[in-house]
Design brief:
This protein has about 240 residues and is an alpha/beta fold. It contains seven helices and nine strands; from the N terminus they run βαααβββββααβββαα. The strands form two sheets. It has a six-stranded mixed sheet, sandwiched between helices. Strands 6-5-8 form a three-stranded mixed sheet, with no helix packed on it. Helix 1 packs antiparallel against helix 2. The model has no long low-confidence stretch (mean pLDDT about 90).
Length: about 240
């Protein structure tokens, strides 16, 4: 198993997370402090406009910055990251398997001897169910309290299709027009504590612990020709120096 990861991109995102997190805290505390100051200096219950607008600006900016920094921390700082979980799940495959992380618009692309997989990861650890293309996550107080500290869930099926479309464009740019390579989107939940229920999904949905066995079952049919495979390896590796 060969893993090619854009470490430069990871380092850049970590740097921004470390920069934005304290800035967000300062803005939020500044807004709170200015609000307290406005109450102390109010005349007959009337708050001076400069205090009101100052508090509003600081809190809004702090809220936006906090969301951005939380997203960066969840994806790039907190470990294990999605790429690390996928690498562990696929450990043991031979050198004909390549995992490309964060090099292209589709974040995770797996090249096997027979197919190219476009993997969309989700890190949720609560209860998740999918029926066809309909996703459900029952409301819980703990999830509500962790709202700003967890990654957005969105619509994994739609996200997987978007990633697959992006990967298809990448392959079109790499391969000759007559090349025919099977492209398979996957949705993989990387947190082992997720309570996952799957019923007839339009795109395969599975836990990372089941990924290796799933790939083994799918490794059937004609192999990708050697010249096409070499073009894929070179093209998907990108320029990440």
């Amino acid at each position: 198993m060969k893993i090619i990861t854009n470490e430069k991109k990871i380092a850049q995102r970590k740097k921004w997370a470390n920069i934005l997190s304290p800035i967000a805290m300062v803005l939020l505390l500044g807004g709170l402090g200015l609000n307290i100051l406005s109450l102390r200096n109010s005349n007959d219950g009337q708050i001076t406009p400069i205090y009101f607008y100052g508090t509003l600006v600081l809190l809004v900016l702090g809220f936006i910055m906090s969301n951005i920094s939380s997203h960066l921390v969840n994806h790039w700082v907190r470990e294990p990251r999605a790429d690390q979980t996928l690498a562990k799940a696929l450990k043991g495959f031979d050198s004909k398997h390549y995992l490309f992380n964060y090099i292209h618009k589709a974040p995770h692309i797996l090249l096997t001897p027979h197919k190219v997989y476009v993997i969309t990861t989700k890190g949720q650890k609560d209860t998740v169910s999918v029926d066809g293309e309909k996703w459900k996550r029952p409301f819980s107080l703990m999830r509500a309290l962790r709202f700003f500290a967890q990654e957005s869930f969105g619509n994994p099926t739609l996200e997987a299709r978007q990633n697959a479309a992006a990967a298809a464009k990448t392959l079109d740019a790499i391969l000759p027009e007559d090349a025919d390579v099977a492209l398979q989107p996957l949705i993989v939940f990387t947190n082992p504590d997720v309570d996952l229920t799957v019923n007839n999904p339009t795109i395969p949905v599975l836990k990372s612990t089941k990924l290796k066995s799933f790939i083994r079952e799918q490794n059937k049919g004609p192999a990708i020709p050697h010249d096409i495979r070499q073009a894929l390896i070179t093209g998907l590796s990108g320029d990440i120096s």
